[in-house]
From TrEMBL:
The lineage of its organism: Bacteria, Bacillati, Actinomycetota, Actinomycetes, Motilibacterales. Residues 173-306 form the GGDEF domain. CDD domains: GGDEF, PAS. Residues 91-143 form the PAC domain. This is Cyclic di-GMP phosphodiesterase Gmr. It comes from Motilibacter peucedani. Gene3D superfamilies: 3.30.70.270, PAS domain (3.30.450.20). It comes from the Bacteria. It holds the Pfam family PAS_4. SUPFAM superfamilies: Nucleotide cyclase, PYP-like sensor domain (PAS domain). PANTHER family: BIOFILM ARCHITECTURE MAINTENANCE PROTEIN MBAA, DIGUANYLATE CYCLASE DGCP. Residues 24-88 form the PAS domain.
């Protein structure tokens, strides 16, 4: 009797520790999953179960990857988990899966193998942090850094990087280039204000973007200057596109209930792998100014607003 009584404090302590462990597991905001050596689920906390929209009874004893809805997700999860179990070493990974709400979520996982006294792997503890919002915020920042805030087109640094790649001597495809500068845009700003001018630039960007192939690049360099990079295109294709751009921009735009008209002067150049990007851009720019000067000499440089 004395021995049993003496063990009670120890038993109470062990029970308290078990309760604390369970509370910590279930109360954690992180996704926590414990697998056995075969990849079967032996423990899963509420956060993990909620992320997949399943009950604990549906998860226990099943391969972890079977809990995912998407077949592609299941295949990838099976590969990663089996590889981690085979390696038996701690690791970090990031995965995406289709959540019950139909949106994809990204989770950063930390995997910790647990071994028995004999050194054999007994369990794998996977702790995941949902990083979806963080990754989306990073993507938004990248887009802001790469795109023109007004039109959504690529900005000048992004365009210059694309031109550099296209003219790379070892792997570039070469490219045709259109340098576009609006005619009569200053009159829009002076007559109707900068808000109307900005709205017009957005409409011009949409029209030009609608004329190019999906893998071509359209960018706004600044002000009313736009460029189009036609990957792998030669002179005939570039000249034909320049004609289409001129015709599209000449059509009236409706901005805030007003019909506005502008024109565009387009200069073209073609660069081949190994050409100097700055020289190709300068050639298209120079031709654009020659086109604009010729139109002005004919009295066609300014397109009136209506």
């Amino acid at each position: 009797m004395g021995d049993a009584t003496a063990q009670l404090p120890h038993q109470r302590s062990a029970h308290a520790e078990d309760c604390l462990d369970a509370a910590a597991l279930q109360g954690a905001g992180a996704l926590i999953l414990v697998l056995d050596a075969a990849g079967l689920v032996v423990r899963a906390n509420r956060a993990f179960l909620a992320s997949l929209g399943c009950a604990e009874s549906d998860a226990l004893g099943r391969p972890a990857w079977e809990l995912l809805d998407s077949e592609d997700d299941r295949h990838e999860a099976a590969r990663v988990i089996e590889q981690t179990l085979a390696n038996g070493t701690p690791g970090a990974r990031e995965t995406a899966f289709l959540a019950p709400d139909g949106h994809r979520r990204r989770v950063a996982w930390s995997d910790s193998p647990l071994r028995g006294p004999d050194g054999e792997l007994r369990h794998l503890v996977c702790v995941g942090i949902d990083v979806t919002d963080a990754r989306q915020a990073e993507a938004r920042l990248r887009r802001l850094a790469e795109t023109d805030a007004l039109t959504g087109l690529l900005n000048r640094p992004s365009f210059e990087a694309a031109l550099l790649d296209a003219l790379d001597a070892s792997g570039g495809m070469g490219a045709g280039l259109l340098f576009c500068d609006l005619d009569g845009f200053k009159a829009v700003n002076d007559t109707y204000g900068h808000a109307a001018g900005d709205a017009l630039l957005v409409e011009v960007a949409e029209r030009v973007r609608g004329l190019v192939r999906s893998h071509d690049v359209v960018a706004r360099l600044g002000g009313d200057e736009f460029v189009v990079l036609c990957l792998g295109a030669g002179r005939p294709e570039v000249k034909a596109l320049a004609t289409r751009v001129e015709a599209a921009v000449r059509r009236p735009f409706v901005v805030a209930g007003r019909q506005l008209r502008v024109g565009v002067s387009v200069g073209t150049a073609v660069g081949t792998p190994g050409d100097v990007p700055e020289q190709v851009l300068s050639a298209a720019d120079a031709q654009m100014y020659a086109v604009k000067a010729a139109r002005r000499s004919r009295g066609a440089g300014l397109v009136a607003t209506a």
